[in-house]
Design a protein that fits this description.
heterodimer; A: 307 residues; mainly alpha; B: 251 residues; alpha/beta; Rossmann fold; 2 domains; 4-stranded antiparallel beta sheet; 10 strands
Chain lengths: 307, 251
């Protein structure tokens, strides 16, 4: 546990140093942190043995909330919680239905909801500007409107702060009775019921929490890219989140951030090296992870410690 | 006569043409240990499943503590005070034995605290005390899937006892356990259950266990109760010995 905290601290420091030393990486690392927060939500569901193939819908909800509300209210300190709450509220509504299902049905129903949202974002041009997307209006931070370079640092700092906050939150949650019961859904759901524990409600709490983190991740993506398109809700974006979860490993709250950072860096460098074949390189990386490191990057690190 | 805790009347349930319950009438008295014996397929587990809300009978009624419980969910029935253990232990295999016990304690005390640890000092002590009573302290930190069958059975029952039920239904608590271990396990079990005053119904194939620990025996045969009474009487009945125990011993 101490090693995990130490690794988290070193990781956070390394990100800051990289962002400072290589300025263009700041953008990439902010996106990695935002996706890592969203993948933390996937990790929660994986603990229950469930995979969501539609989690990008929550990123989209967070990102579009940011884009829609920014012209009316530019304060990030209000916009971020609003994005989180809207995603969580939506997660609660569809979660009430989804937690009745397990395994492939759970995964595919999530995908179905995400694709419905994608279609709406794409087709309702009058509201969403379709595939053109919406530009995120100028934002203010605690009443100030800093110049672009400073703003990038602030968004990076917010993403890092929220990553640490949600990482800790998930860690406490997974060690709590609710978190342990969540893992019980994967192994012995019947037993939970015969202990008087409503498994669906346990899963619903995790689902809403994961939706909230998805919304925060999406809002951070919108704050970083300053342009939101329906592509953020597309099924490949959901697949990417599951990819990151597997790459990072589900054994620790650090896994999603290790996975997201590795993913974004491999993507950037692979795209630069072989522009047309970067997906092939990512696919190769995933194959190697599944075959030789089923615990993901986190699994490799923790195995090294134990050895 | 002691007060009736559980009363089943006219329970019927058929799976296709197989009558798993064909008019079951049974009263379980406060504080007694009632053994259910009978060949495989006689409907013993079906009775437990109906009583705990896992299966719903097609006819009949069940009252617990004077109140009807038919149609209630397993969760609601557990909250009324009926616990159960399983023929195949239902442990959370990725958790340690201690966490399994603590989770059962949490289920009783309130599970809805998302940010305080399961193994908080008071619950850890309570879980350790529970495991101690079942002789499982030495394996408290082992993963549940690393235990031998006897310890798995005890841990499974310990989790049911953690819920502090007034009636505990146990489905074959000694099946799959090595012969040498069997009596030790049952003795541990009976000692704990007697000390908590819980009423117990247990399905059992070992007649030595039944003769030694049951207050009454119900003999199941083709979805019916063929005989009911003290073990000395029932187990000596030539018909039971020939038709049920003979089959059960071979089962």
């Amino acid at each position: 546990m101490k090693r995990e905290s130490l690794l988290a601290a070193l990781g956070a420091l390394a990100l800051v140093v990289c962002a400072w030393a290589v300025p263009w990486l700041k953008f990439v690392l902010t996106i990695a942190l935002a996706k890592g927060i969203a993948v933390l939500g996937i990790l929660l569901l994986l603990r229950a043995g469930q995979v969501s193939f539609g989690h990008s819908m929550f990123l989209a909800l967070g990102a579009y909330t940011m884009a829609f509300l920014a012209p009316m209210e530019d304060e990030v300190l209000l916009l971020l919680p609003a994005a989180a709450l809207i995603a969580a509220g939506f997660g609660l509504v569809i979660g009430l239905f989804l937690v009745r299902y397990r395994d492939i049905f759970f995964g595919m129903l999530n995908l179905a909801f995400a694709m419905v949202l994608y279609s709406l974002l794409e087709k309702l041009y009058a509201i969403t500007k379709g595939t053109d997307g919406i530009r995120v209006a100028a934002l203010s931070f605690a009443g100030t409107e800093p110049e672009r370079g400073t703003q990038e640092w602030i968004v990076f700092g917010i993403a890092l702060g929220l990553a640490i906050l949600f990482g800790l939150l998930v860690r406490f949650y997974l060690a709590s009775p609710m978190g342990r019961a969540l893992a019980g859904i994967k192994t012995r759901e019947t037993r939970l019921e015969f202990m008087g524990v409503p498994a669906r409600r346990v899963l619903l709490f995790a689902y809403v929490l994961s939706a909230l983190m998805g919304g925060v991740g999406g809002a951070l993506v919108a704050m970083t890219t300053r342009h939101v398109t329906p592509q953020i809700a597309y099924w490949t974006a959901s697949g990417e989140l599951v990819f990151i979860a597997i790459l990072g490993g589900a054994g620790s709250a650090l896994g999603p951030f290790l996975g997201a950072t590795a993913f974004e860096l491999v993507r950037v460098y692979a795209a630069a090296a072989v522009a047309d074949a970067w997906q092939m390189i990512l696919g190769g990386v995933l194959l190697v992870v599944i075959l030789f490191a089923p615990g993901g990057v986190w699994g490799l690190l923790s195995r090294r410690w134990r050895a | 006569m002691s007060q009736v805790l559980l009363s089943a009347k006219g329970l019927r349930l058929a799976f296709g043409g197989v009558k798993a319950a064909d008019g079951i009438d049974l009263d379980v008295r406060h504080g007694e240990f009632l053994a259910i014996i009978g060949p495989n397929g006689a409907g013993k587990t079906t009775f437990i499943n109906m009583t705990t809300g896992y299966l719903r009978p097609q006819a009949g009624r069940i009252e617990f503590d004077g109140k009807p419980i038919l149609g209630l969910s397993p969760r609601a029935i557990v909250r009324r005070g009926i616990g159960r253990s399983f023929q195949l232990p239902q442990l959370f295999s990725e958790h340690t034995v201690l966490e399994n016990a603590a989770l059962a304690i949490a289920a009783r005390r309130g599970i809805w605290s998302p940010f305080t640890p399961l193994l908080r000092p008071r619950w850890r002590d309570e879980a350790m005390d529970l495991l101690d009573r079942f002789g499982l302290r030495a394996v408290a930190e082992s993963r549940a899937d690393a235990l031998n069958e006897g310890a798995r059975k005890l841990a499974d029952i310990a989790m049911a006892v953690a819920l502090e039920p007034s009636l505990l239904l146990m489905d074959e608590p000694t099946s799959g356990v090595a012969a040498a271990e069997k009596m030790v396990i049952v003795e541990t079990l009976v000692r704990v259950l007697r000390s908590t005053g819980v009423t117990a119904v247990f399905v059992e194939h070992d007649m030595d266990v039944v003769a030694r620990f049951a207050d009454r025996v119900a003999v199941w045969s083709q979805g019916r109760i063929a005989a009911l009474g003290p073990p000395g009487e029932v187990l000596a009945d030539p018909k039971v010995r020939r038709e049920v125990i003979g089959i059960a011993a071979n089962a």
